[in-house]
Amino acid sequence: MRNRVFLKAMAAFVVVIAVATLTLDFSIRRTWESSLHNDIEKLLVQNAEGFALRVQNDHEHSLQQMAEEESKITETRTTIIARDGVVLADSEADPKTMENHAGRPEVAAALKGTKGAATRLSHTVGVEFLYVAVPSGGKVVRLAYPLATFQQHLDAIRGTLLRGTAWALLFALVLAIAVAQNVSTRLRRIVKFAEQVAAGDLSARIAARSGDEIGQVARALDKTARRLEENFASVRESRLQLEALLNSMTDGVIAVSPEMKILWANQAITRMVHQTARIGSPVTELIRHPDFLSTLRAALASRQRESAIAASLVGRRSFSITAEPLPDGGVVTVLHDISEIERVEKTRRDFIANVSHELRTPLTSIRGYAETLLDSDDIGHGDVREFLQVIRRNAERMGRLTEDLLVLARVESGEEKLDIRPHPAHQLVAEAASSMQESAKTAEVEISVGTIPEAEVLADSYAMHQVFANLISNALRYAEGGKKVLIGAEEHPGSVEFYVQDFGPGIASEHLPRIFERFYRVDKARSRESGGTGLGLAIVKHIVLNHGGTVRVESSVGHGSTFFFSLPKA
Ligand code: ADP
Q: What is the pTM of this model?
């Protein structure tokens, strides 16, 4: 990396410097050459004109003498040519051996009366010359400057120029290396910083001092890293607070991914299962209870809150499980220990059952003696008989109450073993209708059976008998104006819903949500008068729940009531 940036910058510098040097050398040399050429030509013309004057006016010296003198002074080859082109004198060669020069371009120009110039290889001497010829009276004088000398001058100048350029190139190169090295070092610091940040070290800084673009980039990156570090710190702080909060809870909290891997668990979980939760390991390593796992799976699948009660989840302890979907697809589960609540509930149920049980014998005894007394003739017909009847009635009521309390305690505890098997729905309805026929006749109410699906349901027939008996006897008791009770069933996916409908006065809507609670009665006096205990619907609800079904009621004042309960299909 370092070498690449450095070498690229270097290569660019060298190319730029070399191109600049070559361009400089080329253009300067050309200008210089042409200017030198012009100067020499001008000087030759001046010398030639001076010499032409001398040739015209000097009558003392021979032409050859003058030519040789001039040649020495001006360091040129000097030639004097007659009007017809015949060479009269020449400083370098014997004029007699020289051919006619009238055809030479510079001579031809001078013969026409103007100055002429030409560059050419001399036939006589074999060297390249710059020729300048001017008219001189009837003759022409010509000065020839050997260009080899000019070239030597030029080469010397060029050498100096090239040496200067080489020094400049060297200097530029050193400067370029320094600049490239500096840029490369600063870029390396930025790269190192980026690597540190990528490795999670947000405290890394470049700390550039320069104000150029690289410095600006470095400062912007430092600012970004500082912001990230601050945000990260505040996120970590919130996370620690949340962890402290969750760890202080007595409820177990565990978050799992969509693949059922542990994302996080609080310390309560560790205390519960006597095992530390390993992040990323399957949740089944920690808790294997089927109810717990099925609640998690249900929440993952439905993306909705799911809850369940799991008995003996850890050891002999029971827990309520609430699984809430997480925004990123996982689930967070709260495990609340309900063993203590269950224990208290059980104590309460046992107490009620025991009390009811204990009351049975004295109540039977009271009722028995009251009846015996009523049967005897000794008591006559006065107040005593009436009192005895009140005693018997109340003893009977208390008997019913204790019976219902015992049943309720049994069904609420779920301890009662249900004999669940498939029963055709119509059979359950037919049995219920026939067993209640007698009571219906007494109440002068007709029991009719609606349409019943073919399906079979999973139920304990004895418990179902109790459910139907409670609902139908309520319908007979409270719907005396209706004169008709309709029982039937409807098929649903996975379940069959039975109903008992009456056409009596109905129930006001404010009572409906609480109607299945124990001892809840819409009209207490009326219930008591008709022999009600306030426990019938509570018993119905618990029996149906124990079957895995549900109960509900639809009613409106003046339009009768319909009680529904569903049972799973076989
Ligand atoms: P109870 O022994 O008092 O009948 P239940 O639990 O069976 O106790 O019923 C609770 C209350 O619900 C009753 O007191 C009565 O007010 C009301 N109720 C039950 N069934 C009907 C019905 N079919 N029509 C009107 N009210 C009803």
A: 0.56
